[in-house]
Amino acid sequence: MRSLGRVGDEGRGLAPLDGGSRSLPPAFLDRVHRRRAVPDSAWFRPTIEWNRATGAAPELLDRAARIGTEGGVVVLTGQQVGLFGGPLYTLYKLLSAVALAEEIEGATGVPALPVFWVVGDDSDFGEVSSIWFPDATGRPQRVRDADEPEGGTLVGALPASRHEAHLFELAPHVRGHRHGEFVLGKMEAALAHASTWSDLHAALFHGALGARSALFLDGGSDAFLGAAGDWLGDAAKAPLADLLNRAVPAGEEPVLAPELGDRALFRIAKGRRDSVQDPREIDVAAMRAGGEFVAPNVVLRPLLQDHALPNVATICGPSEIRYRHQLGPLYQHLGVPEPLRPSRFSAVLLPDLDCAGSVDDGSYLSAGHDPAAFVDRRVEASLPDELFGEIRELRERVRGSIDRLEPALGEFDKSLPQLISSAAGKADYQFDRMLEGIKGKARHRLQQRCPALAGLADFVLPRQRPQERSLSWWTPFAAEGPEVVTPLLAAAKEHVMHSVVRSEERGGADDILVERSVFRLEGIGS
């Protein structure tokens, strides 16, 4: 795997950010020292043990234990559980948190732990029930769990064994890659030790990333929700709908509908969740005594995270930054410290396209922005210039002969120039067809020689969606093996450091960076 540079929204190549030479700004270091704390052991110790059971590396567990006794800070990110761990941007979020936590601890000596919040209490199964995994040529193949559970079922509590049949379905696509057996081995090992989808989510990332993983926290676990219930019950009695309105400029549509504040809690019982119509009437203690819990909706979840954790920064995607920005008045009202929100690292992965002829880094960058145009340019470059030149010359001779003939025909009869003009148009049309036919043959030959070129647009923009939102996060591991973590983590560090610096320069304001790193996967398409 080789880094090729970055592209912005307009496809321009961008200079390296050189994040390795940046220092964390003083304002951010102040945040770190102010936020240092010891999490509540009632849920933190069980969380550490859950990570131990799902295969977390000893180094990660040791850092978590230090924070549990000495105090420290966390860098938070998170996502719903998904089939085999979800899409690429899940990995990009996690690596961004790991990179920033490493920088914090190196700069301050304060124990800093990346924490991945598993939204195990989510019930939107359709959103997480499928993945797209590229075959050896780069064409994405869909694998889906079509067995829709009953509405309200917690996805994180579903049995991990549901993945087993889909692993059999996935295996042929994975085995076609250079490191496919590595990926299948990690998936099989995780399945052997996981009982639920939340378990499997943690086990998959621990298995692939080792010491470069994060501590996983299942926001739907009994231990955590039991400890968080009293705070949630009190927070839900605040005028949340009114507070949500305060951060919305006049005349603009809110990202979060204010009415979400009126139903900010779910009731969790027996592996399912149901909305609480009036959170002010709920008796958390009585529910807990009966084995039931309350869980937050999208309004209260960020505040619960920052109440429970000594969180100095939450790694967010663009949409998360926008909706979390609206929560500022809630943070102030509830007295919860608001973290910095650096944007997550983003990337475009490309197959090895050297089989398409000489491809320099600039061309690769353009393929990451507009793959269809890149393919067209490769086809044009493969055309036989001499043959095209002869056809164009013949076309010009025919046009010239018609132009010379037209006046003489007009002198003989005024109706004849129109006929010859019509014939000229038909000749042009046939010449166009001939040239397009040659291009079609050239495209077919080029794609036979370079199958990755035929599926390039599908690989970069599966179903016309961003690659990172569709392709499985295992894609770079299948192509390049476990060593792929090093270049991805380095790029994530550059990005997140740049985002932190920009945010603090603007007084802690949110910063959404739009550039994407571009990498060539030598294990796909070669």
Summarize the structure.
It is built from 22 helices and 13 strands. The chain has helices spanning 26-35, 41-53, 58-70, 88-108, 125-128, 163-175, 180-193, 197-209, 222-235, 240-246, 284-289, 301-308, 318-325, 328-334, 361-369, 371-382, 385-412, 416-449, 451-454, 456-460, 475-480, 485-505, and strands spanning 2-7, 13-14, 73-80, 112-119, 130-134, 140-144, 215-218, 265-269, 272-275, 293-296, 311-314, 347-351, 516-521.
What's the helix and strand layout?
Blueprint: E1 2-7, E2 13-14, H1 26-35, H2 41-53, H3 58-70, E3 73-80, H4 88-108, E4 112-119, H5 125-128, E5 130-134, E6 140-144, H6 163-175, H7 180-193, H8 197-209, E7 215-218, H9 222-235, H10 240-246, E8 265-269, E9 272-275, H11 284-289, E10 293-296, H12 301-308, E11 311-314, H13 318-325, H14 328-334, E12 347-351, H15 361-369, H16 371-382, H17 385-412, H18 416-449, H19 451-454, H20 456-460, H21 475-480, H22 485-505, E13 516-521
Parallel strand pairs: 3-4, 3-11, 4-7, 12-13
Antiparallel strand pairs: 1-2, 1-13, 5-6, 8-9, 8-10
Helix pairs in contact: 2-3, 2-9, 4-22, 6-7, 7-8, 10-14, 15-16, 16-18, 17-18
